[in-house]
Predict the 3D structure of the following.
Amino acid sequence: MGSKALDYTLLTIVIIGAVNWGLIGFFRFDLVAFLFGNMTWLSRIIYALVGIGGLYLLSVYGRIRGIEQA
């Protein structure tokens, strides 16, 4: 799996997480908890993937900076 495919996959996961946070903030509706249960093992895995994806995407800043300087 290439870096580009990983970037797009994790970006999609993080966008889904951001939409979920928007729903929580605006409407007090947690879509992940609604679909998978409140803090079940599956919902915890989803929250963990969103967090790991966000941490991984921090590396995008370094790659963008490298592209701009080239």
